[in-house]
């Protein structure tokens, strides 16, 4: 659509990751689980009908007003100038497919010990409001689905390592003791949501330009401590790559190798504690991002942290 030229945004990131993984023979079309679009009934598990109607009301009202709502939520100003049916098809439907993917990956993670959704991680969206390129609250939805539909899942830990504070899931689980939230983010950037911060059990606020050594030391210490603190049935790992050096939104200075090591630290801790882990890719839309995500997943495979033999049966219903 040319949209990506108007916004600091690699909208092809997700497909590129899949292609890199195919080139490396890690996945094939047969072994990839294709995401299904989240339907209205699914979305209503978390979202209010009023919120969903705001996204849909283009049918009844002017294109311009509705597009304005979507542009505000997605932070893609050019959306303002697109006719509405294109916004629906090119922006919201892909987000619903990614949302469905996170839910499916949650179920797979419980069954197999791990799953990665190449997409999702819309951590600024809560049940009644969107923001920061997040229109659907996929993390909240997935946790609620698992609590309601998967036997033995009654506690969840969110490890949010995107450069931004995950205020969406924080608002959704503000008073829910079943969900433990650890959040590591640049303290000076969007969204700076003081109210949502009250839901964070383990808060690690970073300074501008934080580099690998300090970052990885903090991530390792706090992930270990978080998993020791409560025994959860599932980890939702929001693996945003906007911590990368030079990212125009994140303001941190982590190297590609640092991102690979970070993901390894989190998966290794999950494995050590025998807790199923679901990873979503969240923010980070630089040209180099897709290659880094693929390299990190390949690394997880090569060090033996993701594999069909990764058995969690021994831990029973951890
Ligand atoms: Zn972010």
Spans of at least 5 consecutive residues whose pLDDT stays below 50 are: 58-66, 309-318
Helix content: 40-55%
CATH architecture classification name: 3-Layer(aba) Sandwich
Distance between the termini: 46 Å
Shape: globular
- Ligands bound, unique: zinc ion
Radius of gyration: 18 Å
Q: Which strand order spans the largest sheet, edge to edge or round the barrel?
A: 1-6-5-2-3-4
**Element order: H for helix, E for strand:** HHHHHEHEHEHEHEHEH
Query: How many helical stretches?
Result: 11
Family: Belongs to the histone deacetylase family.
Subcellular location: Nucleus
Keywords: Chromatin regulator, Hydrolase, Nucleus, Repressor, Transcription, Transcription regulation
Domain Histone deacetylase: 7-297
